[in-house]
Design a protein that fits this description.
The structure is a homodimer of 337-residue chains. Chain A is α/β, with parallel strands linked by helices. Chain A is 42% helix and 16% strand. In chain A, strand 6, helix 9 (191-206) and strand 7 form a beta-alpha-beta unit. Strand 2 (96-102) of chain A pairs antiparallel with strand 2 (96-102) of chain B, so a sheet runs across the interface. Chain A binds a DNA duplex (30 and 30 nucleotides) through residues 1, 3-5, 13-17, 19-20, 23, 25-29, 32, 47-48, 50-57, 115.
DNA sequence: ACGTTTACTGACAACGTTGTCATTAAATTA
DNA sequence: TAATTTAATGACAACGTTGTCAGTAAACGT
């Protein structure tokens, strides 16, 4: 390995002078600079990041934490886009991205205390995760891409307005004269899912419609689960005429189940998804869905974290809610009767 | 920050002894060990990874390189599953995963020469990438998740048998009496795409069918591109009765286009995808597709790389081809005439 | 001509850990 | 009893870089 010493020897200066050239510090005479640069080129010298990190006391690395329990997260286009937003923002700021699968043997808190990273971005942390509290107490810079409780405001997060999104969807359905609307929700252990249910209840109440609890079904964000829940919903003696799904994957599964049961979409049943993943345009029928800007979610989370790490003293929790918008396609139509 | 010195002071031993306890080295008297462990617990000491890496001359980190040019890669379920395979294998071996977006300002070769990683996994590297050659010359341990040329065998890779996969698909279509089969391919700059075309030509030739070059259309792995190419293919004066798509996303787009043009799938036109992403089961109709085990691809790539890094001396390139299998669903049926 | 500033450079310590080697005391052997 | 092995521990250098501070020579001011 070529070190700064080798460069110093070849160019006949001290290691400190080489360091100055490499880091563009202070005044260096043009001849010296040239000489050193020449040697660097000749030897192909590259500074050793580890050594730098040790003296600088930082790593220029951000850890992105994925809860290992949530297996579906990897098959979910939503996840990848958030990750892309994070990755590009970090890359633009010359930060490294350490992708970490959280599980019991590798708790994510140690990433910081072992100085592998300077800060953390937490993806999809379930409610009441005990690790999280420890982070805050130790002043670890961190940002969540999801709310971690309905009330907590000591943690920074960037998240979509799930309640508002579902309300938009229900307004749309009601304008199409639907009155029996079911919610095929994700796992209730996630705040985002609870907020969707909240929006659902609020909107129905606003229009004097009963929010029958049997109309809220709990699943897990996979197509399989959407498929199963739709079938279950339609078995109701008074089956819904519209389904709002926790995400687009569930919506695809739901539409498939409806077809298998002989229901036309949207003639018999309207279906609305959540996310607007790229495939939503290409399902049959193309899916009406509540769009959230997942890329921006990731980008903003990274941006927020970078700001924190730059100014750890004045860091106060920041909470950013991103607007959703309803994308109307062909999976929704007027109610039959 | 709590350092090994603090632990040494509190427990009244030398730093070296603390180090021995932490790393479970040599013989330490039970009393000393207990004393030190007590101090570690009391202070909440965690070893500093950067300092360790510096003296050990390694990072226990693997870089996963994503070509930034390939924007579609992030929206592609395929990518995430390979990544999951890599992530889990690395995690199981206590290695860190550094996710790196390759672009001009951040060439991936420097990740190794700057000692940020001990080895590299290259995702979806285009043919003739100049960085790659440099890696090999410098003895950087690296494995590709795709072949980087038809002939090169100095690089290690793990990849699916694309040619064989397409041949399986064509056998299936021919058994359904299809004779006009088009290939909606991905970008020809990728070897995997060229191999699919090779399989296509071979299989047709084997059955004495003409491999009309107009029947191979080049796209880019997105649904949009599948949509556009299908429309184009059907404009042929002698339109195909079956479409083999470069991946499932393209197949979804293609099916949508066919429906818009009034063709029934599979009554009028059969469609076959590639990958078998989780959604393939839930399209309408459910998609017949060539399955590749993307998770295993990632896992094996990581496994191979880990083996290399353990034994850099005897490292010879290893090339692993994974079998594909045809999953028959409802998007294929007998040819009409 | 002499003091003072300025521009440039280098010696050395430090970051937190592990490796090498020496040291001590106890245990074993002759 | 003396010599030798063994077990347990510590002093110090090293990893490759940056920060601190001091040093030298030239340029400037009076």
């Amino acid at each position: 390995m070529v070190t700064i010493k080798d460069v110093a020897r070849l160019s006949g200066v001290s290691i400190k002078t080489v360091s100055r050239v490499v880091n563009n510090l202070a005044e260096i005479s043009p001849e010296t600079r040239k000489k050193v640069q020449q040697a660097i080129l000749e030897l192909g010298y590259q500074p050793n990041t580890t050594a730098r990190n040790l003296v600088n006391g930082q790593t220029n690395t951000v850890g992105v934490i994925i809860p290992h329990s949530a297996d579906y997260i990897f098959t979910h286009p939503f996840f990848t886009q958030v990750l892309q937003g994070i990755a590009e923002e970090l890359s633009a700021n010359n930060f490294n991205l350490l992708l970490h699968l959280a599980h019991d043997k590798a708790p994510y808190a140690s990433l910081y205390s072992q100085r592998k990273v300077d800060g953390l971005i937490l993806m999809s942390i379930p409610i009441g995760d005990p690790n999280l509290q420890g982070l805050e107490e130790n002043g670890v810079p961190c940002v969540c891409t999801c709310r971690i409780s309905e009330t907590n405001n000591s943690t920074s997060w960037v998240d979509a307005d799930f309640a508002g999104g579902v309300e938009q969807a229900i307004e749309h359905l009601i304008s199409l004269r639907h009155r029996r609307i079911a919610l095929l929700a994700g796992p209730m252990s996630l705040v985002s899912v609870r907020l969707r249910a909240l929006g659902y209840r609020n909107a129905l109440q606003k229009h004097g419609l009963p929010a029958a609890d049997g109309y809220i079904l709990e699943g897990d964000f996979t197509s399989e689960s959407g498929h199963a829940l739709a079938a279950k919903a339609m078995k109701d003696p008074n089956p819904p005429s519209a389904l709002i799904c926790g995400d687009d994957m569930m919506a695809f599964g739901a539409m498939q189940a409806l077809k298998e049961l002989g229901y036309g979409v949207p003639e018999d049943v309207s279906v609305i998804g959540f996310d607007d993943i790229s495939l939503a345009r290409f399902s049959s029928p193309p899916l009406t869905t509540i769009r959230q800007d997942t890329y921006e979610k990731g980008r903003k989370a990274a941006e927020t974290l970078l700001a924190f790490m730059r100014d750890k003293q004045n860091a106060t929790p920041r909470q950013i809610m991103l607007e959703t918008s309803l994308i109307t396609r062909n999976s929704t139509a007027s109610a039959k009767n």
